Structure formats: C-alpha cells, structure tokens
UniProtKB/TrEMBL annotation:
GO terms for biological process: carbohydrate catabolic process; deoxyribonucleotide catabolic process. GO terms for molecular function: deoxyribose-phosphate aldolase activity. It catalyses: 2-deoxy-D-ribose 5-phosphate = D-glyceraldehyde 3-phosphate + acetaldehyde. Pathway: Carbohydrate degradation; 2-deoxy-D-ribose 1-phosphate degradation; D-glyceraldehyde 3-phosphate and acetaldehyde from 2-deoxy-alpha-D-ribose 1-phosphate: step 2/2. PANTHER family: DEOXYRIBOSE-PHOSPHATE ALDOLASE. This is Deoxyribose-phosphate aldolase. Belongs to the DeoC/FbaB aldolase family. DeoC type 2 subfamily. Coiled coil: none annotated. The keyword Lyase applies. One of its GO terms (cellular component) is cytoplasm. Keywords: Lyase, Schiff base.
C-alpha cells in the first residue's frame, strides 16, 4: 500500500477538514445502561500485542507524506501544562504557541499558508489543556483564535474528592469559558466491577458539562487489565462521553499502543451498535514524532479517515510539538536542529 492510500501524501492536502465538512459530527447522547454489551467481553493480550507490532512495520511514511502526517498531528494536539508550578505567564506562552505551533518560515518552506498569530492562522493546535485555575487566563489569551480551552476536572488526577465537588468544579470551568472538560473516572468502580456506578457518575458529569464536550479519562495504567479497559470504555460511551482518553499523564504507565487499540475497537463497536461517533485521546508518553505516526496509523486503519480530524482525535502532549517542529525543519532544510531551538513556548 502506498503512502497516499493511507493519507494524502502532499502537505498542501493534509490540512483542510474535507471529511469533517462532508460528515458533520453529532454529539454522542449516550444510551441506557445495558451490561449485556460488555459482560462477556474478554481481550486476548497476545493478539493485541501482535496487532500493534504491525503498526510501525507495515507502513513506510517518508518525505512529503511524513511531513503531511506530522502537520495533521499538530492540529490534533491538546497542548497541555499541568504542573504544580504553572503560572499565568506560562499559560499565556502556551496559548501563543498553540496559535502558531510551527514557525512561519518552516510553513512557508513546506508550502503551507502560515497566516498570522493575531488573525486566525491556518495551522493551530486542537486545544489548550490547563487546570481550572487557569481556564479564564487561557480563554482570554486565545480570544478570536477558534482554539478551545480544555480543563481537567473532577479532582484531577486521582478523582477522589466528593461527587458534588466534582460537579461544582465542572460547572465552574464551564462558567469560565472551558469548551471541553477532561474528567477522571473513579477507578474503584472499575476495579470492583461496579459498572452501574461508573455509568451514573459519567452521566452526571455529562449533564454538568452542558454544551462543553466531555472527555472521560480511564487512567488505564491504574485499572490493571485490558478487559477492564474495554468495559470501562464502553460504559463511558454509553453514559454520553464525547471522547475516551487513556491517561492523566500522572500514572506510572500512561498511553500505550496496546491500550489504545483496545479503546479504539470499543469505539468501533459502539459506533456499529449506535451510529454515534466517539473520539479518542491518548495522553502521557506520546512525546516523539515517530511515536505519534503510529497513533495516526492506528486511527486510520482501525476507525477510518474520519477519525483523523481534531473533533474525533486528540493527543495530550507537551514536549511532542517541539520534536515535530524539529522533524519538519529537517524535512525543509535537510539538517537536524538541536532540540533546545524548538521550545514549547
């Protein structure tokens, strides 16, 4: 299979959201809880490992095609800062980078309209993700850009505050202008098999979000088994999640191709059952251009071209963008640049 049969092979054709325009996304409203959808579900670990081993081996994405894939990845990044020493200044710098994620001279060399950061550049990240404290700061810094602000919520990252506090935190972030809410599920519900409690919790979160989109973080490194991950994915989608997300980035093990395969196949199953499209977000550990290509291939092969748009695919990352920009400079100039020349913001 050639590069162009997987994704458009020229950089000039990678950015327009033709598929999104042709197939407008309608939000997943959720369905009634039905344990029969997942009770008998089991995941074969060996089969999963064999499948993900093929992702980087059966595809050779080089030159213009690779640059095109990496530019597509940029549009799907949730540019993130979730550190204890975050400041308003750091968040504003992050938002400036989200507006102009790749240097204008590199975009010009690649034949991409760079636009201007103050107007709406043709290339920008999918969102900026911050703690609730900085939602209003980010909304102000991104005004007029069309870039949404995502807020981590519900006692992120552990999710062990009282339920009513979780709902209040969601409401506060929405009131401050967050258009996306990344919630953490209660891991205990998954580990004890209390699927009704998980459904009820996520359903409450969905209602509290209102028009803001809900991304349900499963914390896959904490819930132990691929079968648990598959079941939790299905329950969250049944409860109305707009996205399912691997990790907080704070677990010992975060996004992996194996857990991602299990989650995207749950998305495929849900879509086949209901007709509703749900998005996917790997987060934590996706830090190199090489690794992100495997996630793009995974989405295209398992779910199709429609799932390569930012309304259905996001990558939670901070350092990834610098490595992508470095690889794009190599493509444009033939020379590798030092990593420190491509700061996050």
């Amino acid at each position: 299979m050639t590069d162009s049969s997987v994704l458009d092979s020229t950089t000039s054709n990678i950015l327009p959201m033709r598929s999104a325009a042709d197939q407008p996304l309608v939000r997943n409203p959720g369905v009634s809880f039905d344990a029969s959808w997942f009770d008998a579900l089991r995941v074969n670990l060996s089969a999963v490992e064999r499948r993900v081993a093929t992702l980087g081996a059966r595809r050779s994405v080089k030159k213009d095609a690779q640059a095109a894939w990496l530019l597509k990845a940029v549009t799907c990044i949730d540019l993130t800062t979730l550190s204890g020493d975050d400041t308003a200044g750091r968040v504003r710098r992050l938002c400036a980078k989200a507006r102009q994620p790749v240097r204008a001279d590199l975009l010009d060399a690649l034949g991409i309209d760079s636009g201007t950061p103050s107007a709406s550049p043709s290339l920008h990240t999918g969102a900026v993700c911050v703690y609730h404290r900085f939602v209003a700061t980010a909304v102000d810094a991104l005004a007029g850009s069309g870039i949404p602000v995502a807020a981590v919520s519900t006692g992120f990252p552990a999710g062990l505050i009282p339920h009513e506090f979780k709902l209040n935190e969601i409401a506060a972030s929405v009131a401050d202008g967050a258009e996306e809410i990344d919630i953490v599920v209660t891991r205990e519900h998954v580990l004890t098999g209390n699927w009704q409690a998980l459904y009820d919790e996520v359903r409450d979160f969905r209602k509290a979000c209102g028009n803001a989109h809900l991304k349900a973080i499963l914390a896959t490194g904490d819930i132990q088994t691929l079968s648990n991950i598959a079941r939790a994915s299905m329950v969250c989608m049944m409860a109305g999640a707009d996205f399912i997300k691997t990790s907080t980035g704070k677990e010992g093990v975060n996004a992996t191709l194996a857990v991602s395969l299990v989650m995207v196949r749950a998305i495929r199953d849900y879509h086949e059952r209901t007709g509703w499209r749900v998005g996917f977000k790997p987060a934590g550990g996706v830090s190199t251009a090489k690794s992100v290509l495997n996630y793009l291939i995974l989405m295209k092969e398992e779910l199709g071209r429609r799932w390569l748009e930012p309304d259905l695919f996001r990558i939670g990352a901070s350092s990834l963008l610098a490595d992508i920009e470095r690889q794009l400079e190599h493509h444009a100039s033939g020379r590798y640049s030092a990593f420190h020349r491509h700061p996050l913001a």
